[in-house]
UniProtKB/TrEMBL annotation:
InterPro entries (alphabetical): BamE-like, DUF3192
UniProt keywords, alphabetically: Signal
Pfam families: DUF3192
Name assigned to this protein: DUF3192 domain-containing protein
Annotated signal sequence range: 1-25
């Protein structure tokens, strides 16, 4: 018995709908991991690195360690140039998107690290 093309297309659509949002990968060792596992590992790696940072580190040193930030802000107040880099460190929303509340801010003044986390962020002047 032959299935009409429309029925076959419908079956493919229905069967593939159950696979949406599921990403499974195989690394070179044959181990399986989901995309959420790799994000969790990245978050842990970022938290570990940030915990080892010391005041005075350069923006370049931090970016060499952590790579490209998820978000970045830059402004100048009273001739001090502030830069804030945001790196993902925890999951808040399991939606596949990274938001600022899932990141730790890394705060610099004139290119030197002055603090990490929300407390450091609240202690710098706003750009009015």
């Amino acid at each position: 018995m032959k299935f009409p093309k429309l029925a076959m297309v419908g079956a493919v659509v229905i069967l593939s709908a159950g696979l949406q949002g599921c990403v499974i990968a195989v690394n070179g060792d044959g181990e399986h991991y989901s995309s959420s596992d790799s994000v969790t590992k990245k978050e842990k790696r970022n938290r570990t690195a940030i915990a080892s940072f010391t005041n005075g580190m350069s923006v370049d040193a931090v970016q060499r360690e952590l790579g490209t930030p998820e978000f970045s802000d830059l402004w100048t107040v009273d001739n001090v140039r502030y830069r804030v880099l945001y790196y993902r460190t925890q999951r808040v929303h399991a939606d596949g998107n990274t938001t600022r509340d899932e990141c730790t801010p890394i705060v610099f003044a004139d290119g030197n690290l002055i603090g990490t986390g929300e407390l450091a962020l609240t202690r710098i002047p706003e750009n009015n």
